[in-house]
C-alpha cells in the first residue's frame, strides 16, 4: 500500500492517511476484505508513531470504511455504492467551496463565479 506523508502540510498526518486510504477504496485499489498493513508495519514504513496510524485506522472504522477483527487485523469493509457516491459528492462539494472562496478572495462577484462555472460545464 503506497501512502505518501507530506510533513510540511497543515493537514494532520492521521488525516492524510485516512484520505489516501479512502481514495484507494473509492478507486477500488483496495477492495472489500483486503487486509490493511498492521499498525506497527505501516508506522514503521512511514516512519511515524504507531499511535498516529491507530488513530487513522480508528477513524476509518468509525466512518465504516474498515472493520477490525481483534487479533486478525484491519480489513476493508463492504461498501455499498450509495455510500461511495455520497463520499464522492462530499469531496466535490469541498472542492467547490474552496474554489468559490478563492474566487471571492480574488474579487469575483457571485455572478462572475456562476458564469465561470457555466462556461466550464459547457466545455465538457
Please tell me about this protein's structure.
By secondary structure, the chain is mainly alpha-helical. It has two domains: 13-76, Winged helix-like DNA-binding domain superfamily/Winged helix DNA-binding domain (Arc Repressor Mutant, subunit A), CATH 1.10.10.10; 81-122. It contains five helices and two strands, in the order αααββαα. The chain has a two-stranded antiparallel sheet. Strand 1 and strand 2 (73-76) form a beta hairpin. It is elongated, with a radius of gyration of 18 Å.
Topology:
Blueprint: H1 13-26, H2 39-46, H3 50-62, E1 66-69, E2 73-76, H4 81-105, H5 110-122
Antiparallel strand pairs: 1-2
Helix pairs in contact: 1-3, 2-3
Give a quick set of tags describing it:
two-stranded antiparallel ribbon; Arc Repressor Mutant, subunit A; elongated; mainly alpha; 2 domains; 124 residues
**Could you give the distance between the termini?**
34 Å
Please tell me the overall pLDDT: 92
State the strand order across the main sheet.
1-2
Query: What is the CATH domain class of the largest domain?
Result: Mainly Alpha
The major sheet is characterized as: 2 strands, antiparallel
Query: Taking Cα atoms only, what radius of gyration do you get, to the nearest Å?
Result: 18 Å
Report the principal-axis shape: elongated
Number of strands: 2
Strand fraction band?
A: 5-15%
Count of alpha/pi helices: 5
CATH topology of the largest domain: Arc Repressor Mutant, subunit A
Amino acid at each position: 500500500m503506497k501512502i505518501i506523508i507530506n510533513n510540511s502540510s497543515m493537514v494532520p498526518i492521521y488525516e492524510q492517511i485516512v484520505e489516501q486510504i479512502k481514495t484507494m477504496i473509492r478507486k477500488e485499489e483496495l477492495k472489500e476484505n483486503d487486509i490493511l498493513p498492521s499498525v506497527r508495519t505501516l508506522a514503521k514504513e512511514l516512519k511515524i508513531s504507531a499511535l498516529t496510524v491507530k488513530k487513522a485506522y480508528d477513524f476509518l472504522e468509525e466512518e465504516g470504511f474498515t472493520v477490525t477483527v481483534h487479533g486478525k487485523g484491519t480489513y476493508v469493509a463492504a461498501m455499498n455504492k450509495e455510500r461511495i457516491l455520497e463520499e464522492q459528492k462530499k469531496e466535490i462539494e469541498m472542492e467547490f467551496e474552496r474554489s468559490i472562496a478563492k474566487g471571492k478572495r480574488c474579487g469575483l462577484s457571485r455572478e462572475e463565479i456562476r458564469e465561470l462555472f457555466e462556461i466550464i460545464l459547457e466545455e465538457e
